[in-house]
Amino acid sequence: MRVDVGSIHDFEDRRVRIxxxxxxxxxxxxxxxxxxxxxxxxxxxxGPVCLGIVSGxxxxxxxxxxxxxxxxxxxACPWHGWEFELERGRALWDESYAVKVxxxxxxxxxxxxxxxRGRD
Amino acid sequence: xxxxxxxxxxxxxxxxxxAELIEYLSKGWREYVTDRGPAGNVPLAVQDGFxxxxxxxxxxxxxxxxGEPGSDYATMRAQLLDAxxxxxxxxxxxxxxxxxxxxxxxxxxxxxxAMNDWSAERWLTQDPRLLSSIMVGSQLxxxxxxxxxxxxxxxxxxxxxxxxxxxxxxxxxxxxxxxYAAAEETGRPVAIHGGAGGWANPPxxxxxxxxxxxxxxxxxxxAIQTHLxxxxxxxxxEKYPGLRVVLIxxxxxxxxxxxxxxxxxxxxxxxxxxxxxxxxxxxFARHVWVTSQPLEISPQKENVVELLRSMGLEDRLxxxxxxxxxxxxxxxxxxxxxxxxxxxxxxxxxxxxLYGWKADELKLPGAVASTETR
Lengths: 120, 374
What we know:
The complex is a heterodimer. By secondary structure, chain A is mostly beta strands. Chain A has one domain: Rieske Iron-sulfur Protein, CATH 2.102.10. The termini of chain A are close together. Chain B is built from 15 helices and 8 strands. Chain B is globular. At the A-B interface, loops of A face helix 9 and helix 10 of B.
């Protein structure tokens, strides 16, 4: 089932907006011209992950250096700070651990989420 | 009981007189130390520790001919080296090991240099089974690094040893990194020995100073924990991927709980240390070894065994007697506390991996002389 959650203009850049998609609470992030969506539930202790901070992925080429990959948005859960990259929802410290990604597409300027049987 | 070959990773050798060490000082420093008339020598070892009510040495280790425990090779040979099938024993100095507790960094550097020469000439020449630590005055890290490199060609100077902490910073702090660069370059593990708390320079314990040797000895793991966390958080193993570390005399049963906590904290606080590429426990498993002594004694021996097994420590523990100190662990006793299928690993094989020795060759009867490092 596809759910229209608004115009792309309703979404502020680099901000997560929480929308209702059927029975699901989903966080939608606009990252310049890209959109990402994940369930608002952290796999750790079921916290409201989408209320956490969003940033580019921080890295360090060498000890003491602080770099940012601005092409890879990362969401940090507000409950314990666990970080997930939003492309595939994977935790930065374990690729097998992830928030649930919700497929998102843009058609005619509208943001559409794919939710439903087998997808949530 | 275990009766196979043994590598002992913590044997404290000592000197009896100042003169033994003064001989190895430069002419100027000899003059500095000795030219005090009736005041006697400038003290060579830091003397600011907690007194042990029993004394720090096993009473039976005092040489019959006089002198300090650990100072007489014949006694050490009879009581330790020949008492079991000891193939190698790594010497770790006595009170002199607190050289980094000296306030004067230049004196400490000279003492460390002299101690290493004393150890190589007075001890390593006596028995091919004996190997020595390289002591450094970490107050001057660049000088310490040069001292490590000075021994690069002597494969019987097998590790760089840190005890006291001159900077009140965990040993992972970049100020210490020149020492690790030299250790990695020369293929020597860095050994961090417990027991610095209560001496001249280092902080004592985490929550505040304590009053008795009893307290400080219980809390020895605190300093080791600080250094282990510091090493990993500062990315020392990313910067020096070939570096190996051995934690001496800090116990081991706490390691699983610390690493579980460390991993969990990393998941939430990775943003502060984004140069780390692995979980802390993974760095530990690749780079860190731990001496067996003192093994924590749980009411049921299975308790501590289960803890150690939970972090795979049967492959990271290396045997250490701590001879001739009062709290030394005997092989016979230790072998009753650990599962039989761990014995060869802990008493022998793990140390071979740590120091880069060929276990199969070293197991052959009489095989003690070759000490090729990686």
